[in-house]
Design a protein that fits this description.
Elements: H1 2-23, H2 28-46, H3 52-63, H4 65-76, H5 81-107, H6 113-138, H7 150-165, H8 171-200
Helix pairs in contact: 1-4, 2-3, 2-4, 2-5, 3-7, 5-6, 6-8, 7-8
Length: 207
């Protein structure tokens, strides 16, 4: 619910910028590529060096491109299956890069093997959460349930990492523990939801 309200707010906020970019010939796909490239570069360029606060700020700035490109597509009437596919694919790369950068930091410079494992659990779990929904929809079902969807996961990891970079104690560990548990629970929720829908289709659908 909160994510939907925030998305509506930022859509309205970015509308003038989106109109301006469209007027000078910049398309939504360009913004999608810029956003994903910026997130990936910041995650692997800053997090492994321990620049947690600056890295989180830069990543957050580029994450907003995900809202901007959607606003541009809507205003220009260029919404398409290709645009949706590109956006979702690059989102997965960007999300994986954020947690991948943290895994590298915790495993090497940060010397926090437990947090490295937690970040890895969040990374793998996040990929499975997205895949479960895509696979269910490919099979003609819906699977948009769960307590930790993409926006919530990003908010938690970026906020916890940024505060940790400012020296706030324990916030990174607490954030990753919560995110790991919530991600695993979400995977389970999506599996149960698909199982429920399959069961409603009759015994033949489970074979």
């Amino acid at each position: 619910m909160l994510a939907r309200h925030l998305k509506a707010f930022f859509n309205a906020l970015f509308t003038p910028l989106a109109r301006g970019l469209l007027r000078i010939g910049v398309g939504p796909d360009v913004i999608t590529w810029i956003g994903a490239t910026g997130v990936t570069a910041a995650a692997f360029g800053l997090y492994p060096r321990g620049e947690l606060f600056v890295g989180s700020l830069v990543i957050t700035a580029f994450v907003f491109s995900d809202t901007l490109d959607g606003t541009m597509a809507r205003l220009s009437g260029r919404s398409s299956r290709w645009g949706a596919f590109l956006d979702s694919t690059l989102d997965r790369i960007a999300d994986g890069s954020v947690l991948g950068g943290l895994v590298l930091w915790f495993a090497m410079g940060g010397d926090e093997p437990v947090l490295a494992v937690l970040a890895l659990v969040c990374l793998i779990g996040g990929m499975v959460v997205s895949y479960a929904r895509a696979r269910a929809e490919g099979l003609g079902m819906t699977c948009n349930v769960g307590i930790a969807e993409r926006s919530e996961r990003l908010v938690v990891v970026l906020l916890a990492t940024g505060l940790s970079g400012l020296g706030v104690p324990y916030v990174q560990a607490v954030g990753l523990w919560l995110l790991a548990v919530a991600t695993v629970v979400t995977v389970g929720q999506r599996m149960l939801e698909v199982r429920r829908q399959v069961a409603l289709d009759g015994p033949a659908a489970t074979q």
